[in-house]
Each structure stands twice: as structure tokens, then as C-alpha cells.
Design brief:
The chain contains 14 helices and no strands. It is an all-alpha fold. It has one domain (7-297). α1 (7-40) runs antiparallel to α9 (168-203), α3 (54-64) runs antiparallel to α7 (118-142) and α12 packs across α14. Belongs to the UPF0718 family.
Length: 298
């Protein structure tokens, strides 16, 4: 019946569907958490919990991911919500880069996928904490660029003025209403990102990539490109990483595991919706440099 469709298109649709099917539950979870934050997390509560010292606040942000297990598919809505609620940007982004990696589910998946050895899980955590400290410090002390798009900042303030305290049932309804909005909003970008990622997986010639693995640095860079284009869920990427281990070696696989959950196509699409383009470019550049150096030196 489908014989007239070229094989590559079928292959692409299969990959696309698997990316979407894998990501949707996590995006949904992310949106529900985001909805709960929207309703229950007040700016005052945030200010109470967070230490005044910027560096300590970055550390708190880096550790939060352990308690808020979130896949990177659903992380952008949560971080945006944090920032609208007055969480400092450096804490929010430290959370954004570590949460998809240092959560227990992902660490367990990494442990299992890479031959039941804790080594990769630990290297993964180390790399993500390093990136979080660098990114957090950069945002806290050096970044002069605006981060959230203006209309979102205004929407945050606007919402804050009008939020009254509804009854218990009303609150749950509010969480779900917010989650559904967020889901359809984010879902669009997930689908576009998934399509691009699937087409790159099918149409990028792997032979060409494999010839590049002679030098350590080049193979690390190739794996960064792969992590970006494959756009895997952080719960599943370790299984792909382990299949590439024999070809690329430990350094490159660690780069792949640290970089993928922070920057990939679907994430980029979701970030583009809420953050300024210039800021995203700098963020990506810093993450790339830090991860490449880390992977090279381990």
C-alpha cells in the first residue's frame, strides 16, 4: 500500500514519531509542573527560600533538579515560569542545564545503559554541574543582554496583579488550564524540532561523520553535533550513547550525554519562543565550549 513512498521518508516518519512519543509524556509533566508553579509558587515564597548570595543561589539552582525531575522536553516552560515568579535568572538557568541530567530517573538510565557502571553517571553529573556554575556565574556577573522577551515579562507582572486566591478545587482547575495552554504552546515547537531532528538523522551521511573520529577533539565536536541534531530525551539518550561508545570512545560519549539535554533542536525551538535570540546564541556558545573542554580533559 505504501510502496510509492520513498524508504527514507518512512524512516524519517518512524524516527519523528519515536521522538514525539518519547517526549510527549515528559512535556506534559513539565507543563503540569509549570502550571502548579504558576498557581502555588508565589514570588514571596521564592525570595524566602533563596539565599541572597548570588553564587549560593546558583548552587541551589543546580541542586534543585534532583528534586524536580524534569526531562529537557518540559524544562523550558518550568524555567520561564520560575523567572516570571521572580526567581533570579542565574538560578533558573543553573536549574535548566542540570535538571534534565541530575534527576534520579536519568542517572539510573545512564547507569543501566552504559554497562551498570557508575562512571558515566558521575561524569555526567560533574559536567552538568560545571556548566551550571559557568552559565550561572556568567548570567549573574557578566551578561548584559535581556533574557525573557518583553511581552512575557509584562504578562508575568500583569498576571501577578490579578491573581487572587481561589478555592482548592478552583486551584486544581487553574493548574490544569495553565498546563493545557502551555502544552499546546510548547507542543508546536516540539513537533517542528522533532521533524528537523528526524530529517537530519536520516539525511546526514553517517559515513562522513565516522571518518572524522581520528582526533579526540574532532570526535567530541562530531558528538556535540549528533547530540544537537538527534534531540533525544535525556531519559533515553544514554542508550544511544552506549551504542556509539565503541566508535567514538569515552570522551565523546560523555560530551554527547552532557550536551544533549542542554542544547538540542527541539529545546532551541522552545527557547526561541521565550528568550531573546542573542542571549540564546551566547548561552549555546558557552555551553559548547565548556562541554568540549570538559570532555577533552577527563
Amino acid at each position: 500500500m505504501l510502496t510509492f513512498i520513498p524508504h527514507s521518508i518512512l524512516q524519517m516518519s518512524t524516527i519523528f514519531l519515536s521522538i514525539i512519543v518519547e517526549a510527549v509524556p515528559f512535556v506534559l509533566l513539565g507543563c503540569i509542573i509549570s502550571g502548579a508553579l504558576q498557581v502555588y509558587l508565589t514570588a514571596e515564597r521564592v525570595q524566602r527560600i533563596l539565599p541572597k548570595n548570588k553564587f549560593l543561589a546558583i548552587l541551589v539552582g543546580s541542586g534543585l533538579g534532583f528534586f524536580f525531575p524534569s526531562c529537557e522536553c518540559g524544562i523550558v516552560p518550568i524555567v520561564t515560569q520560575f523567572m516570571k515568579k521572580g526567581v533570579p535568572e542565574y538560578t533558573a538557568f543553573a536549574f535548566m542545564v542540570t535538571a534534565p541530567i541530575i534527576n534520579p530517573i536519568v542517572l539510573f538510565a545512564t547507569f543501566v545503559a552504559l554497562g551498570n557502571s557508575a562512571r558515566f553517571a558521575l561524569l555526567r553529573v560533574g559536567g552538568s554541574l560545571l556548566v551550571a556554575l559557568v552559565i550561572g556565574s556568567w548570567i549573574a556577573y557578566f551578561n548584559k543582554l535581556p533574557i525573557l522577551k518583553e511581552e512575557l515579562v509584562e504578562a508575568g507582572h500583569h498576571h501577578h496583579e490579578h491573581s487572587s486566591h481561589p478555592k482548592k478545587g478552583g486551584r486544581v482547575f487553574e493548574v490544569l488550564a495553565h498546563a493545557i495552554d502551555e502544552f499546546f504552546d510548547t507542543g508546536r515547537y516540539l513537533i517542528i524540532g522533532g521533524l528537523i531532528a528526524a530529517s537530519m538523522q536520516v539525511y546526514l551521511p553517517t559515513q562522513v561523520l565516522l571518518q572524522l573520529t581520528s582526533s579526540r577533539l574532532v570526535s567530541i565536536l562530531v558528538m556535540l553535533v549528533l547530540a544537537f541534531t538527534m534531540s533525544l530525551c535525556s531519559e533515553a539518550d544514554a542508550f544511544v550513547g552506549s551504542s556509539l561508545l565503541s566508535l567514538f570512545g569515552v570522551n565523546s560519549v560523555v560530551a554527547f550525554l552532557v550536551f544533549g539535554p542542554m542544547v538540542d533542536i527541539k529545546n532551541l525551538m522552545m527557547m526561541k519562543r521565550v528568550f531573546h535570540g542573542k542571549f540564546i546564541l551566547q548561552l549555546m556558545a558557552i555551553i559548547t565550549v565548556v562541554v568540549a573542554c570538559y570532555a577533552y580533559l577527563i
